[in-house]
Design brief:
With 238 residues, the chain is an alpha/beta fold. The protein is built from 7 helices and 5 strands. It has a 5-stranded parallel sheet with strand order 3-2-1-4-5, with helices on both faces.
Length: 238
């Protein structure tokens, strides 16, 4: 009987959520192939974080794919548009914010689909979340279900019956606090991660963008300090 681990592709941004998802996939017994993207994002320091996380968790392989969504713009993350700042997570509204990058998860998943086919991976993991998130339409369960259905019509491996692709979103119904607790239980080193949409030149988090505020709220609800550096202080517990 074969004891080889099944392959899986894990989308790894270098942020808190994707680091947690990688740890979950590893714990579930997958041989993980991490996939990160250099797409012209202003917070490109996350790519160094992705490399640190991949190395610390011992992935089977780690690929970086490069393309430039600055050609289209339409987002504060890929255009010369200020990233909105707030005083607390309570100020985050329900409207889709300007930090939404048009079609980003569809593009990412399309690359993951190709990588999954060539690595004989029937499983793709990503860290989308439908609770503590900033209103992005491509983080919803119905979007993930629709992409999975499409994916199984789109590849040679699926059409020939050699692969039935599954998209795993283990964080999709968790709060940020629950995500952090799960990661801490799995031994994730969150000091290696980067979540800020608008870090300074030294890579320190701003502490006031939606991503920072949700992250800080999650750590606070667990009663522990966030181990990354923020502008003005080494770490932060509101």
């Amino acid at each position: 009987m074969s004891t080889a681990k099944p392959n899986a592709v894990v989308l790894l941004s270098g942020g808190l959520d994707s680091a947690t998802v990688l740890a979950i996939a590893q714990r579930e017994g997958y041989q993980c192939h991490a996939l990160s993207f250099r797409y012209g994002q202003r917070h490109a320091v996350e790519l160094a974080a992705a490399e640190r996380v991949a190395r610390s968790q011992g992935v089977a392989s780690h690929r970086f794919v490069e393309f430039d969504l600055r050609q289209f713009g339409g987002s504060a993350l890929t255009s010369d548009i200020a990233v909105p700042k707030k005083s607390s997570a309570a100020e985050i509204g329900s409207d889709i914010p300007i930090t939404y990058v048009p079609a980003r998860n569809t593009i990412f998943l399309s690359f993951a689909l190709a990588f999954a086919e060539v690595t004989s991976s029937s499983d793709i993991f990503l860290g989308v979340n439908a609770l503590d998130y900033s209103g992005y339409p491509d983080c919803r369960p119905e979007y993930i279900a629709a992409f999975e259905q499409m994916a199984n019509l789109a590849t040679k491996a699926a059409v020939e019956g050699r692969q039935r692709l599954r998209i795993h979103t283990p964080l999709i119904q968790l709060t940020k606090a629950q995500i952090i607790r799960r990661g801490l239980d799995l031994g994730v080193d969150y000091s290696l991660t980067s979540s800020c949409y608008d870090p300074d030149a030294a890579g320190r988090a701003c502490g006031h963008c939606d991503s920072c505020l949700l992250r800080l709220k999650g750590f606070a609800e667990n009663g522990v300090s966030d181990p990354i550096a923020y502008v003005g202080r080494a770490s932060r517990l509101p």
